[in-house]
Amino acid sequence: KTEHLKKQRTVHGGHLREKKPLNIAIPVIDAKKQTGVQETNLGLMIHIQEPKFPWEVVHMDWVTALPPSGDKRYNASLVIIDRYSKTPIFLPCHKDDTAMDTALLWSRVISHTGLFQNIISDRDTKSTSALWTNLHRLFGTKLSFSTAYHPKTDGLAERIIQTLESMIRRFCAYGLKFQDSDGFTHYWCSLIPALEMAYKT
Length: 201
Prior knowledge:
Blueprint: E1 2-13, E2 16-27, H1 31-35, E3 57-63, E4 76-82, E5 88-93, H2 99-113, E6 118-121, H3 130-139, E7 142-145, H4 151-172, E8 177-179, E9 185-187, H5 192-200
Parallel strand pairs: 3-6, 6-7
Antiparallel strand pairs: 1-2, 3-4, 4-5, 8-9
């Protein structure tokens, strides 16, 4: 591939000076084709104002690659993290929960923490639904959406999610349920409060 450029060059024709256009063919290298690098739309970086108090700004995400657990067959966990204290809240749920289901879980959280000023999450269909958007507009809560390749916005949630997945995986390595010495049956979903306490301490 070449790109043709025209430049003005002064040449001497006898005693006269005249300008003639000089055509120059310059090869143009397409770096993406040469290296095989795919162009990625990184999106805009969102500015996060660091909170001054607990539960002003929270991260929200889901762990979905979990085995069904308990009588309600939970197969996911909603993870909410306070950006100020890095304190997480883990809530068993289903990966196909609707925005209404998530809002009902949310009500259990804000009854203890109060309303948030800003919620950071990815562009999940539940996070961008009309119900979720209108609900938080009424609350006066700002919804911010993290983008891929920007760990400043979603890195905190990712690290805690990896830790939660690791803890649940260790439990499931011994079986999806077990009975204690008193005869009670335990599943990973019933151990979520203990896992949350273990993480906080």
